[in-house]
TrEMBL record:
Alphabetized PANTHER family for the sequence: HELIX-TURN-HELIX TRANSCRIPTIONAL REGULATOR, ICLR FAMILY, HTH-TYPE TRANSCRIPTIONAL REPRESSOR ALLR
Coiled-coil stretches: none
Highest taxon above the source species: Bacteria
InterPro entries, alphabetized: GAF-like_dom_sf, HTH_MetabolicPath_Reg, Tscrpt_reg_IclR_C, Tscrpt_reg_IclR_N, WH-like_DNA-bd_sf, WH_DNA-bd_sf
Annotated SMART domains: HTH_ICLR (SM00346)
Protein name according to UniProt: IclR family transcriptional regulator
Stretches assigned to the HTH iclR-type domain: 8-70
Organism: Lutispora saccharofermentans
Keywords: DNA-binding, Transcription, Transcription regulation
Residue ranges annotated for the IclR-ED domain, each copy included: 71-251
PROSITE patterns: HTH_ICLR (PS51077), ICLR_ED (PS51078)
């Protein structure tokens, strides 16, 4: 059965507009949205007014541009609360953070990035700021690269070559082929390390957690300031990450 004949064009366009917003384009004007959608301004305007009235979009009075509304957070919290793996991982992550003294982040692939679905903050005085719902790039930093590691080759390549990759620091690699090679090498050891590729002076060590039966790609990572990560600490963290991964997969 061809389900396309049942599509509601206005709803489809509204969803497509919502997908235009990302970490690089947090605000968009009517003209920008009209151009990206290749739809007349009058049609886009009616959709924007509807989305704004329902709280899905808000208009910045200073820039006269639209951005995603707070109501999305309410829906995301409902989804996150219902994730079984998040509930399973939480006590394991607390233990991991206590043993390593660092921040532990659980991420899952979503819409071209790695979204944080759970985080345990370090008790140390210097903390790495992240939050549940935050998006991490897949190509930069072990937090995102760990998610990338668990993907089939064809999906990984398609994502990395979809559009130009953003450079966050001088250490950020943006060549898709080099990133693919880096990930392939890291898969042999089942973990990956990054230093300052997203935030200067920050070390991240990530490990993929795969649920291939549901095509769910996740990553577990530990992050902290570079000065706390000597060779001995890195070896210890990698061992603890691998133990935590086994516990999470066993449920």
């Amino acid at each position: 059965m061809d389900r396309s004949e049942y599509y509601n064009q206005s709803i489809k366009r509204a969803i497509q507009i919502m997908h235009l917003f990302n970490s690089q384009e947090k605000e968009l004007s009517l003209a920008e949205i009209s151009r990206k959608m290749d739809i007349h301004k009058s049609i886009v305007y009616r959709i924007l007014i509807t989305l704004e009235s329902e709280g899905w979009l808000v208009k910045n009075p200073e820039t006269n541009k639209y951005m995603l509304g707070i109501k999305l957070l309410l829906l995301s919290s409902v989804v996150l609360d219902d994730l079984v793996v998040r509930k399973t991982a939480l006590p394991i992550m607390k233990k991991l953070s206590a043993e390593t003294g660092e921040t532990v982040v659980l991420t899952m692939y979503s819409d071209g990035g790695a979204i944080c679905i759970e985080k345990i903050e370090s008790d140390n005085s210097i903390k790495i700021t992240s939050q549940v719902g935050k998006f991490f790039p897949l190509h930069a930093g072990a937090t995102g690269l760990a998610v990338l590691m668990g993907m089939p080759d064809e999906i990984r390549k398609e994502i990395l070559k979809r559009k130009p990759l953003e450079k966050f620091t001088e250490k950020t690699e943006i060549d898709p082929d080099k990133i693919i090679k880096l990930v392939e090498e890291a898969k042999k050891d089942d973990y990956i390390i990054s230093v300052g590729s997203v935030d200067p002076g920050v070390v991240a060590i990530g490990i993929p957690i795969n649920f291939t039966q549901g095509n769910i790609f996740m990553g577990l990572s530990i992050t902290g300031p570079e000065y706390r990560f000597d060779e001995k600490k890195i070896s210890f963290v990698v061992d603890e990450l691998k133990k935590a991964k086994k516990e999470i997969l066993l449920g």
